[in-house]
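lol ok so funny story. i was supposed to be doing the assay writeup but got distracted and ended up predicting the structure for this chain instead. priorities right. anyway since i did it might as well share w the group, maybe its usefull for someone
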Amino acid sequence: MKKTFPTDFLWGGAVAANQVEGAFNVAGKGLSTSDYQTRGLLYPPTERAAGELYIKDVASDFYHRYPEDIALFAEMGFKTLRTSIAWTRIYPNGDETTPNEAGLAFYDALFDEMLKYNIQPLITLSHYEMPYHLAKNLGGWGNRQTITLFERYATTVFERYQHKVKWWLTFNEINAALFAHFGPLGLPEGSSPQDVYQAVHHQLVASARVVKACHRIIPDAKIGNMVAAMPQYPLTCHPDDVLEAQRKEREWLFFFDVQARGEYPSFMVRHFEQQNVLLEITPQDREDLRETVDFLSFSYYMSSCASADPEQHKVTGNILNLITNPHLTASEWGWQIDPAGIRYLLNMLWDRYQKPLFIVENGLGAKDRIEEDGSIRDDYRIAYLNDHLVQVREAIADGAQVLGYTSWGAIDLVSASTAEMSKRYGYIYVDRDDRGQGTLQRHRKQSFGWYQQVIASAGANLVQGDKNAQ
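and the output, tada:
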């Protein structure tokens, strides 16, 4: 088997505006739903105390330090960097008719800096945030009018950056809206299934419309969707467990189905009936949904087990209550580590859709520390990433078409779920703690040099030791 990746494979890393930029109220930026989730995506919004700074208000200060950070990414050899545009930098309230020029200028400068090093921008239009004004006064994605406002925002940035950005994503982890209502949807936590699925439907229509806009405005660009993917293994070989695993996987596959095939899958009809959900879907909605994405992207952090037995022991991980797989180990945050799962996932998605695949998030959150000699020895992260990349290479050998890999996160940033800096993912250490204390100085971790060699060798330096690889 070939031990290297394709020559045009897009190696890189990923971050998100609301987790890394900071500068939350600079140059005309409006407040987003993320700015009100001061304790993270897992928690309801809070009223902001006047003059009080929260961890994401500064985050990693990427807004002011991006030239330094992009130079470090270039030193590693990045071919691409995934980040997002903060909607509220462009339209502070979301319903303006004229965009904020200062916000547009910031991303012009950011993309120019990336292109200076031949790093292709991979840009997410909405990453777990929307203008707070729309959530408070319009009902967020529960209001059909938000489709038009999002389309205006997307069209603005497509026209502005059409010569700089050729890779786009619509919504980050769009399926996360099923369990995190405020940040992604602008809905109150605890909203009914009816309200949540109607808001999700509006997002799916908006996604299809901006895909069409991208195809029209930037014909040589590629635009995809993004789903939080989690393989579900039957806990036992009992048929009931197998059916439960299939049901659980369909909860997130449905989002791929709509955006890759252009219509709702038939299994969702029964699901909506069981949830007492009756969606308002117009004939124009159905027509809009036929505009499908060019590629499928996803995050992968772990797998889970499914059981029809309600008494099975559960552990908390990645916002959800998950049944523990007895054959796997777990991270400090209880996320089970399953490298073979990414190979299973890539093969399953390729078999199901026959569309190019892009791994846009995968990584290990850990409590890194600086040693007395100044080094940061994150061999545990190297092992995690090595084992996953070996399995990606296996999936490519199996026949899956994989465009690239952007590990999460390229540099330490604020955790989306719980607003922690101590849950570190990056190749680059940022000197800031959970209280917001620190110099913000950057330090290369051990994984920095390792990933540099992975990219330089096109994966030839990966150590294949997983028994599931063939």
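The first strand starts at residue 10 and ends at 14. Confidence is low (pLDDT under 50) at residues 466-470.
back to the writeup now i swear
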